## 1
Amino acid sequence: MATLETEFVLPLRSFRLELALEVEGTVALVGPSGAGKTSVLRAVAGLVRPQSGRVSLGGEVWFDSAAGIFRKPDERRVGLVFQEYALFPHMTVRQNVAYAGGDRVDEYLERFRISHLAKARTTELSGGERQRVALARALAREPGVLLLDEPLSALDAHTKVEVRGELQELLHEFGLPTLLVTHDYEDAAALADKVGVLVEGSLRQFATPQEMVARPADGFVAAFTGANLLHGIARAGKDGLTEIVLTTGETIYSADAAVGQVEAVVYPWEISVAHAHQPDSAQNVLRGEIRSIVQVGNRVRVRIGPVTAEVTVASVDKLELAVGTPAVASFKATGTRLVARAGSRG
């Protein structure tokens, strides 16, 4: 498999996008809206020309500012799937796929399980079907790299889970270097081998999804991966633990060493919920009223004081949890990671 290599500078309206990235397998860029994610795809596809740098796939150089090379989009072996799929509404499914060229249209229709839709207009399709047509069209070009712009954002929550599983299988099957951008970390973690957090044109962290959760670079990365962030002042405590006095007044403990201003990172699935604290190994106990209860799939997110816990539906029913009732959130010191505040990095 060839490697997509990018290293370029692209001035945007309010900041400079500066990115050095190697894409092998599937890489996801996540970040808030306006972080420069889509601009990365546009630079790779040749839809925008960076100020300086180099973009290449294997031995093919697509852009090299020093050598004066800039290949047009149709001269790059790129399959690009736009956020809203950009299908032609006046064409049938077959015509959309055939538009990309090549003589393997029937093969791609079959491979994506859309042969039965060949004569249908794209306006008659479901969200998942439209995505399969867009992917088939992109791959019919026989690209060397696949670019996906928010591939699941146009889908409703129910369809999204199913289509994400299908997309995961397809990316593995085709084995192309794939760069996708999304604002949803859950999508990125499910689809990508490595994830980069992009903020105002710069990578905050680039790692596997597992590494990013276990060792977030800072509070921003931790929050983006779904963690609770608790602000406080850290100092040495008893038994080798670090004591953190939170800005909300409570005191918690961590096994990480730190002094001064910190952000304590606690993931929702590491928090237990009860009506009263039960003596166990959990060092940290936060008390308060239940502020919200939201079911997401087969899990339930329960907001207590400054934290959100994630528990099973059965636990909610068994404990008879209800908004406005007092509850206790408890979590271990070993599950409480300490990171520098995102804005205080040197």
## 2
Amino acid sequence: MPISYHPKPGQLMLCDFSQGFKEPEMIKSSRPVIILSGNIVGRASLVTVVACSTVEPDVVRNYHYKLPARSMPKTKHFMGRDTWVKGDMIYTVAFHRLDAVCIGRGEGGKRIYYNDRLGREQMSEIYRCVLHGMGMSFLCQHVV
């Protein structure tokens, strides 16, 4: 079910890339993403994300960042494996593409969602790898 709220930077969500994209763009229907942007005036219902994968890149580049399995929820999408941020795959998407990560069901079958956010150090590393992925590595020195 699509979200109806603005997610916070560092939150993990699932994004549906199956409609409107063509290879070599992302085309999977349920790809994990990390939220990069907060609520920006004039961009209602839009958010910038970076794609993730549990498959290690053939060649690890400066636009890749490995998140340890302990930083991710224990769900079918992550299966206790490390997750790789793909800093060269950045998108601005509408809320209708995003879904919260369900981690189980509580009393009465109510869904429980993963709401943790990545910490400042991890987000700084992610912002650096995104800058490398955009060919703007000269700005990495300004990320704190």
## 3
Amino acid sequence: MNRQTPSVEAEHLTKRFGTFVAVDDISFEAERGEIFGFLGPNGSGKSTTIRILCGLLRPTLGRAMVAGIDVVADPEAVRQHIGYMSQKFSLYNDLRVAENLTFYAGLYSVAKKDLPGRVDWVLRMAGLRGRENTPTSALPVGWKQRLALGCAVLHRPPILFLDEPTSGVDPVSRRQFWDLIHEMTGEGVTVFVTTHYMDEAEYCNRLALLDRGRIVAMGTPADLKSRYMKGQLLLVECEPLGPALESLQGAPGIKDAAVFGSSLHVVVGDASSSIPIIREMLQGKGFRVKRIELIPPSLEDVFVSLTSPRQAQKDAA
């Protein structure tokens, strides 16, 4: 594969299931050694896109190239250049750790002479050395995750697809998993990952934000936070929270408002002029206002701003 060729490329990719549009005319590129993330809620088209790129599902319209190979014209060739880790950690629980690795080495046609070295590399990378004979069913979820990753990269693929790989995994194991991913990209592996965890999205070099099958924004995490907020963001701590949110939504000068934990995040045009107005309005309606201050936006704020029902109504107008 030419270094100048994108590792993954999609042009006007569309997938319909009857009248339902799961993936709606999306285009993007992922470069060599890049962590490219798809961020979106369940049902936004993330997994469907990955299955298309892995040659497991034919697109209805559009074109996809992986490792310079057309996924529709030659899906088998694509699968020789990729590793794929699904949400369910496709492991055989009745096999031991080493047996799972040997089985997947056979699926990926790893040469017999290379097998001992590859298995040792995976055991070392995943922190599973000494547990070769442990039944897979007995592994904690975080260790199963690392074993599944090891099975996916036994053949040293240049491109790795991870479909919500940390779903249901504890925070410490998730962080350890991402440390492994960064090691791989440091060696030139391209990683394409889907997630609905906002903190994980910060680990990506670039992101595409998906909503209802469409890409609503794309860029680096920092770029998304600076470019796509429709104003300035205020943290509003007040009681009671639910009625306060209802009072703020649709009020003059309020672009958007949503609950974040035990407070409200409110998007306004100008923080300095809006803070006293919001305070006076809430206090005038009997709400107890504890704090109002300007804060930097998170990716979750950006995503909520771009995918809120009010934004959808504006887009449809």
## 4
Amino acid sequence: MMILLFLFAALLATGLFFILADIVKLPTIAATKALINTGKQDKRLAKTIEAWLMSWAVKASRFVRMDEYRRSRMKNILKASGITMTPEVYMAYAYVKAGAVLLGVIPCLFVFPLLAPVVVFLAIAVYFKETKKADEQLKAKREHIESDLPRFVATVEQELKNSRDVLSILENFKKNAGEAFRQELDIVCADMRSSSYEAALTRFEARLNSPQLSDVVRGLIGVLRGDDGAMYFQMLAHDFKQMELQKLKKEARKIPLKIRVFSFVMLMCFLFTYLAIIAFEILKSLGGMF
């Protein structure tokens, strides 16, 4: 009887959903998948659940309110991290996804009530994870770009001995840059061709908000204004090299800790093996006595 009631409720909810979807002109799954795939750089096939969540997020974005400063900041972060959503849709998606997880509380209350707090905490974790996703992607992108900056600064130092064409220097370095830095160089080079060089470099600096990149941009703007720049980039190359060495040393310090953990696990395995053998021999000898 309970199974029949559950099936009836599920079919009734599905029917009501399709009726409401037609009334509010909710986009189809195929259209939503195309929208999500357009917003992703890797063009992976969007999951059906993600498509449904995005559909509801687009509808719910009309009710999301934020002040102008927060909206402008989030818009810059989304643009820099490669997420082609408006700030309202981005926040609405976090709300909808967390709400979808929170709906799991309803069956938990009937089947296993003790699991309900776990679902609530999971929904909160999903919300914070989704709201921090853009910042995490931007941080990873910034780290990839900063890893290319020491080579870029050394290249600029050498190029300034023969040429002071900043656009040409950027164009030449794109061939040897990493993927993230190459994409940003494509943007800034196109921006420099369509507007003033200084304004394009300033926008390049503002997109990533990196202190190291700010030092590089400051030197490039100085070159555009007629400064020599060679000594500045020589000192900057030395500083970046020291920073890179410090970073490598920091990563190297983490390796012994990882090795220590695995060594401890291996030691415990050996101890359990010896203890098992000793226990087996003791039990065997006791069995022979009786």
